[in-house]
Amino acid sequence: MDNWDFLDEDFKKEVFEDNFTVIIIYDIISNKRRTQLSKLLSAFGFRIQKSAFKCLLTREKYKLLIEKIDRYAKPPDLIRVYRLNQNVVTQIYGEKLENENEIYYFF
């Protein structure tokens, strides 16, 4: 966070500690439930692979997403949610998506 020294401490805490990146990957057999989950995840973030989404969420939105995701997984389906901290470095090889380089500001 050294590059962000110009920001006041309260703003840095809000942006860097109260928000985090979440990666959701899934393997769902039912076309209907898979489509519904995809639509839900699109409301929270953006698709990075065919069955993977990336979201930048507040704690409240993260809790809401987890509550909603639970209803889509039925045996033998699989949904994985990875909550990442700000120290994670992303390296992308191949074609980048348009919104991969977006910088998020919360006011």
Automatic annotation (TrEMBL):
Mg(2+) binds at D27. The keyword Cell membrane does not apply. GO terms for molecular function: hydrolase activity; metal ion binding; RNA endonuclease activity. Keywords: Antiviral defense, Endonuclease, Hydrolase, Magnesium, Metal-binding, Nuclease. It is an enzyme of class 3 (hydrolase). The keyword Ribosomal protein does not apply. SUPFAM superfamilies: TTP0101/SSO1404-like. Signal peptide: none annotated. It comes from the Bacteria. Homodimer, forms a heterotetramer with a Cas1 homodimer. Belongs to the CRISPR-associated endoribonuclease Cas2 protein family. PANTHER family: CRISPR-ASSOCIATED ENDORIBONUCLEASE CAS2, CRISPR-ASSOCIATED ENDORIBONUCLEASE CAS2 3. This is CRISPR-associated endoribonuclease Cas2. It comes from Fusobacterium nucleatum subsp. polymorphum (Fusobacterium polymorphum). The lineage of its organism: Bacteria, Fusobacteriati, Fusobacteriota, Fusobacteriia, Fusobacteriales. The gene is cas2.
